[in-house]
# Entry
Amino acid sequence: MKLFTKNKKEVNKHQKALNELIRVVGKERVLSSVEDRICYSYDGTKQKVLPDIVVRPGDTTDVSNTLKIANQYEVPIYARGAGSGLTGGAVPLKGGIVFDLKNMNRIIEICPEDFVATVEPGVVTKQLQDEVAKFDLFYPPDPSSAAFSTIGGNVAECAGGITGLKYGVTRDYILALEIVLPDGSVINTGGKTGYDLTRLFTGSEGTLGIFTKITVKLIPKPEKIRTLAAHFRNKDDAIDAADRIIDNNILPRTLEFLDQMTINALRGHTGTDMGEDVKALLLIDLDGTEESINYEMPVVENACKECNGFRIKVAETAQEREAIWAARRSISPALYNIASHKINEDICVPRSKIKEILQRVDRIKEDQPIYIANFGHIGDGNIHVNIMYNDDPGQEELAEIIVNKVMKEVVALGGSISGEHGIGNKKSQFMELEIPPHEYDIMKRFKSYFDPKGIMNPGKMFIR
Ligand SMILES: Cc1cc2nc3c(=O)[nH]c(=O)nc-3n(C[C@H](O)[C@H](O)[C@H](O)COP(=O)(O)OP(=O)(O)OC[C@H]3O[C@@H](n4cnc5c(N)ncnc54)[C@H](O)[C@@H]3O)c2cc1C
# Structure
């Protein structure tokens, strides 16, 4: 556990801010004991830095009052949803205040006739999906963390997920935001006139303002979903099959790819019945009406067969579908069968460059004593490159060198350093690989305009 070292002046300011928060926001909403603060010191990256204060706002007024106080005393403020981020977004690198938004978790309204819902930021994604499904509606963004991550965190990271190819990502479903700016003022975005502030704030990773209300677009819930799993003897065949499916004008609801290392890690996990001959796997969901699926499924099966797919299995029952997907959901824990540490890079390249990037990753790895498992949303070019290493001397440094090389190759192929997990502090060193200096400076100017004192999530996104 790290402690951000403060000088005397900063310690003073923090103490004054704490007193003021207790007075204005209320004792019951402000935590300062070490035991409480430890619970807010980390996220999915497992970095740990102890915050000085935790505030758990109940409404927009609490958020506004907290920001006014933080701004006045120039205390850093770190918004936090479920803390499942994979790039360090919610970690309080410079101490200060962690803003726990999980108590603001009301579904304010669902309007089936307008296909919209308005929610508070602490609503868990799956809860929103389940609630709108009762009206036969569908909120498509579906990160694998949907069961625990919050909508606020999803908007801040512009979360993607397995439905991205057909339905897009979080950004495509955000219609309007209520945002509290660092000076405590409240703005509403979402009108059609003027600049599109909703888009600017979506993906802003808690560096510009705090979302307190989120209005999302809904679409009709597809009638049916059917799942297919296809095995391949090499990864190139699986990639060709994915291309061929899309070339046939079929956009699957999900099109997931697993490479050999990922499959090896999964062997023995529930629902994974894979022989040694399986070196790559495609998991495909089709959704729509019975008729559309009946038309599309044979096309998908043929595409897999034409690319040497074998043991192609269409799930006939909900249990079979669940068994197929259980394997996909087990990947994260199963990877620790390979080694004790993981760096998960969610790179994204144009779909036509997937073979090339995986070949380049193989070349980077070559004989290095480290493992790399690749899997992900092949349809939208978003591959999770997992660099697995142990505690042996030099392994962590080697893993970092490999990450560096991979990022350079991604950018050289016209790709992006993050397909869905955001930048946080874990990827800030790579921002300028991808973003040219002029654009980088424009982004920094937006940041200074909204947050002149630099209190919002300092240490994230930008390194200069
Ligand atoms: C097992 C696992 C699977 C995952 N799968 C996916 C996946 O498929 N796709 C994907 O995109 N991500 C995935 N993630 C990453 C993570 O779940 C997402 O980034 C998610 O959006 C984070 O939500 P959260 O509520 O946990 O946010 P946190 O981690 O708490 O915060 C993330 C960022 O959002 C900011 N923030 C939070 N709430 C607000 C708010 N109200 N206003 C302003 N800023 C705010 C924080 O400051 C921080 O910068 C996965 C993570 C895990 C652990």
Summary: The pocket of flavin-adenine dinucleotide is lined by residues 43-44, 78-86, 89-90, 101, 121, 143-145, 149-150, 152-154, 156-157, 159-161, 205-206, 210-211, 332, 420-421, 457 (CB under 6 Å). The radius of gyration is 23 Å. Residues 8-103 form a domain with the Uridine Diphospho-n-acetylenolpyruvylglucosamine Reductase; domain 2 fold (CATH 3.30.43.10).
